[in-house]
Amino acid sequence: MKKIHGLLLAAMAAAGIAHSANAVTVNATYINKTGTEIRGVFGSYSNPTIYIDRRACGESSLSAFACGPYTISVGTAFLQGAESNYGNYAAKAILGHEWGHTIQFTRNIRQTAPYMELQADCAGGSFIRYAVDTLRYANFLTTAVNTARAYAGGDHGTPAQRDYYTRWGYTNGITKCLGSLPRV
């Protein structure tokens, strides 16, 4: 998997998709601000703590992981890599996805793979719409889709599925994401 991911990053860089020269710096301030922003739209659904660089979920490496209704564990290096490789606000999209998982835990939502992940993509897409419309961020839906597609495979669904559900959440909102998702 690492080899495939490395090849994908190299191919994206060669294609001019990488944005490292303009990458936003991801640090605790950026992550905590993003958490406050996500709380603005998802706070009534779940209210987790974001643990930064602490392996709060017992994971073997720092990436982005939700392990219950109250815990999101993230690594700044992982999120910075996403920002550098896929564009500004990729980390916000990832955090929106992980927050989607905490909503699933809070509501005791259980679906077969890959639909747990795709529902979290949907939640992430709905956060992006909120960030664009309410917080006045530049639209970063394409960045989010590219990020989701890059981390596709296995339980996370295909690149096309991740693309579809992120966009579906952007268009339809969190309420629809938590309802009956279409099967694609």
SSE layout and pairings?
Layout: H1 2-14, H2 28-42, E1 49-52, E2 64-68, E3 71-74, H3 76-86, H4 90-106, H5 115-133, H6 141-150, H7 159-172, H8 174-178
Parallel strand pairs: 1-3
Antiparallel strand pairs: 2-3
Helix pairs in contact: 2-4, 4-5, 4-6, 5-7, 6-7
Please summarize what this structure is.
The protein has 184 residues and is mostly helical.
How would you describe what is shown here?
The chain contains 8 helices and 3 strands, in the order H-H-E-E-E-H-H-H-H-H-H. The protein is mainly α and 184 residues long. It has a 3-stranded mixed beta sheet. A hairpin with a 2-residue loop joins strand 2 and strand 3 (71-74). The longest helix is centred in the last third of the chain and has 19 residues, at 115-133. It is globular. Residues 1-20 have low confidence and may be disordered.
List key phrases describing it:
184 residues; mainly alpha; 3-stranded mixed sheet; 3 strands; disordered N terminus
